[in-house]
Design brief:
Elements lengths: L2 E8 L8 E6 L12 H4 L7 H9 L7 E5 L9 H10 L3 E6 L4 H7 L5 E5 L18 H12 L3 E8 L5 H10 L6 E5 L15 H11 L6 E4 L2
Parallel strand pairs: 2-3, 3-4, 4-5, 5-6, 6-7, 7-8
Antiparallel strand pairs: 1-2
């Protein structure tokens, strides 16, 4: 895989586990508030063999590997990488934006957890991505995860161009979801004037509104 970054241990990327995190190159969304933009657009690569050697000697010290990005489903050898990690005895968590349901379908039986970002409510993706985008695959992936057997969560960053009504629209659309995480937005240097985040009260109100449709709603980043 084309790997742009590697964190040897993280306590936040895979809730409940100590995990290494792999960040791949490339993305098919390019969200304006992305904090990994410089990383996944970087031309520098991390040697996959070095990661494999690290994982081969750290069983018992870390529990799993998170594959993030960028967008991992753009990597042609994603499944091969996942299987190699599983052979070493690690749990695997996959982060995705859901735009490639065919790839998610192909690997979901081989990963332990999938975290899917839902950037905006139905019809609202243009507030996040500046180019034309067919969002139908996003909801296909969401429906597939809800129906499937792989453990998962959905998550939305409550950035300033969203409000509580948008969170309600998302929650209604994924109302059978097992878990929904609402994340506080953090300012970024990727735009000229980065908007201020909504206050903590707004985040908690969004969580309360989402719980009318989804039982397990959590807040992150406060």
């Amino acid at each position: 895989m084309r790997i742009a970054g590697f964190v040897k241990n993280s306590f936040v990327d895979y809730p409940g586990y100590i995990a290494a995190a792999v960040f791949v190159q490339g993305c098919n969304m390019d969200c304006w508030y992305c904090h990994n933009k410089q990383l996944w657009k970087s031309g520098a690569l991390v040697d996959e063999a070095l990661i494999s050697d690290f994982l081969g000697t750290h069983q018992g010290f870390i529990d799993g590997v998170v594959i993030s990005g960028g967008e991992p489903t753009l990597q042609s050898d994603l499944k091969r990488f996942i299987l190699n990690v599983k052979e070493k005895g690690y749990r695997v968590k996959l982060d995705t934006n859901g735009l490639r349901p065919d790839v998610v379908r192909d690997v979901m039986g081989h990963v332990d957890y999938i975290a899917m970002d839902i950037k905006a409510p139905p019809g609202g993706i243009s507030r996040v991505v500046s180019f034309d985008l067919d969002e139908a695959p996003i909801w296909q992936t969401a429906d597939m995860l809800i129906r499937g057997d792989t453990d998962y969560e959905f998550r939305t960053t409550l950035m300033p161009l969203l409000d509580i009504s948008d969170i309600v629209s998302i929650a209604k659309r994924i109302k059978s979801a097992k878990k929904y995480a609402i994340q506080q937005y953090r300012k970024t240097d990727n735009v000229g004037i980065s908007p201020e985040p909504l206050g903590a009260d707004a985040v908690h109100q969004a969580v309360k509104a989402a719980k009318l449709y989804i039982e397990n709603v959590v807040v992150r980043g406060l």
